[in-house]
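Protocol check, entry for the methods section draft. Step 1: assemble the input record (protein sequence plus ligand SMILES). Step 2: submit for complex structure prediction. Step 3: store the structure tokens unaltered in the notebook. Ligand used here: zinc ion. Step 1 record:
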Amino acid sequence: MRTRTAVLLTAVVPAAVGAAVLALKAGHWQLYVDRHRIELTPRPRRSCRNCRGAGGWWIGGPFPEMEACGCWSGRHELRLRLLPVPPWPDEPPF
Ligand SMILES: [Zn+2]
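Step 3, stored output:
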């Protein structure tokens, strides 16, 4: 019975949120929900030996760049498109 209530709540909550945006960070994933898409993106692991949760490190030289760690950059991002984004108007706004 409790699982049935939980399933009903998970089905009702997104409808009640409506146009609101939901962003949730749990574990090593980030969930982003709005009316146009649902995204599940990987985050750096705090237990990673290389970056220790920072997500990367700086490479020295005259033009320093940040190199992404493989603990999150090698994983796939999941995206579900819901409503299409309206096209950008061709006319200038003024
Ligand atoms: Zn890492």
